[in-house]
Design brief:
By secondary structure, the protein is an alpha/beta fold. It has 2 domains: 2-217, P-loop containing nucleotide triphosphate hydrolases (Rossmann fold), CATH 3.40.50; 221-279, Alpha-Beta Plaits (2-Layer Sandwich). Helix content is 34%, strand content 27%. It contains 11 helices and 14 strands. It has helices spanning 40-47, 71-74, 90-100, 105-114, 130-142, 160-175, 187-193, 211-218, 230-239, 258-267, 282-290; strands at residues 2-11, 14-24, 29-33, 55-60, 75-78, 148-152, 179-183, 196-201, 204-210, 221-226, 243-247, 250-254, 274-279, 307-308. Strands 5-6-7-3-8-9 form a 6-stranded mixed sheet, with helices on both faces. β1 and β2 (14-24) form a beta hairpin. α3 crosses α4 and α4 (105-114) packs across α5. The longest helix is centred in the middle third of the chain and has 16 residues, at 160-175. The structure holds adenosine-5'-triphosphate. This is ABC-2 type transport system ATP-binding protein.
Length: 310
């Protein structure tokens, strides 16, 4: 597992990572989320020894990455902007990495097949598309069959099939008992991939909890109900202590659950055309939590007009 303790990284006056502590456990996909500039890449670089912490520590399976004799066997990492020699073929690139870590060539062919690059393994990587480059980076990460896998924005540049492939791969690596840490800007994708979340903002941990708990604590939910007699229903719900927002024949209800809403309507003989619970997405929960810690925020568009009957 990965254990970060009071991890801090300063660049001059700038604090990129500010006393971050978290544990990434085996058997789960842990999503690493944060707005632009939150410190995700810096943290991941410190995990694999590419950056030195200013203070604090991060260990992988109890040891510092830099102390590992064969690092690719300890942690597999895909980091953004990986330097590739453009004139080298994909196969030659992986063989070179394998040789420097005491990994047999047969494993190169295995990972090429695993990431779907077998047919283009003889092509120069300088000609690779962004998506092919990402697959090659993932192949390199898996080369040493490592117990810990760190993927920074692995779905960047991938098409929908590729995105789904990364999701399945991450989940199967976790199911094999590995420790998997994945960052992504695609919240809908993260919601499908990760079962645990570490959220950072301005270099600090904002949340560290299982995905369902994060949604429950940070996502708003309300009952949506449609009725041709929405005005009467709104009045009834309000008298029962609900907060009600009306937009035409649609009501958004908070403070009273869907079952009670249905019972109240039935008791008063009011027809319903729709009744259900709406829970906001991971993206909305994330936006709510990190609203105060974004570096670059655009002005929000005006909210659509709704009639409030309270
Ligand atoms: N080498 C560096 N020198 C100076 N400042 C840096 C350096 N690397 C990162 N930073 C700063 O540290 C902060 C955290 O950057 P980092 O790249 O870790 O964030 P991130 O969460 O990965 O962001 P993004 O999602 O935009 O990639 C940013 O303010 C960034 O400008």
């Amino acid at each position: 597992m990965i254990v970060a303790t009071d991890l801090t990284k300063r660049y001059g006056d700038r604090v990129a990572v500010d006393g971050v502590s978290f544990t990434v456990r085996p058997g789960h996909v842990t999503g690493f989320l944060g707005p632009n500039g939150a410190g995700k890449s810096t943290t991941m670089r410190m995990v694999i020894g590419l950056d030195r912490p200013t203070s604090g520590t991060v260990t992988v399976d109890g040891a510092r990455y830099a102390d590992s004799p064969a690092p690719l066997r300890a942690v597999g990492a895909l980091l953004e902007a990986r330097a590739l020699h453009p004139g080298r073929t994909a196969r030659a690139h992986l063989r070179w990495l394998a040789a420097s870590n005491g990994i047999p060539d047969s494993r190169v062919e295995e990972v090429l097949g695993l990431v779907g690059l077998g047919a283009v393994a003889g092509q120069r990587v300088g000609r690779f598309s962004l998506g092919m480059g990402q697959r090659l980076g993932i192949a390199a990460a898996l080369l040493g069959d490592p117990p810990v896998v760190v993927l920074d924005e692995p779905v960047n540049g991938l098409d929908p099939e590729g995105i789904r492939w990364v999701r399945t791969l991450a989940r199967s690596l976790a199911a094999e008992g590995r420790t998997v840490l994945v960052s992504s800007h695609l919240m809908s994708e993260m919601a499908l991939t990760a079962d645990h979340l570490v959220v950072i903002g301005r270099g600090r941990v904002l949340a560290d909890c299982p995905m369902p708990q994060f949604i429950a604590e940070h996502a708003a939910s309300f009952v949506r109900v449609r009725s041709p007699r929405a005005g009467q229903l709104a009045e009834l719900l309000r008298r029962s202590g609900a907060d009600v927002t009306r937009d035409g024949d649609e009501l958004h209800v908070q403070g009273v659950d869907a079952a009670t809403t249905g019972e109240l309507a039935a008791g008063a003989g009011l027809a319903l055309h729709e009744l259900g619970l709406v829970t906001s997405s991971l993206e909305e929960a994330f936006m709510t939590l990190t609203a105060g810690s974004v570096e670059y925020a655009a002005a929000r568009p005006a909210a659509p007009r709704t009639e409030v009957t309270r």
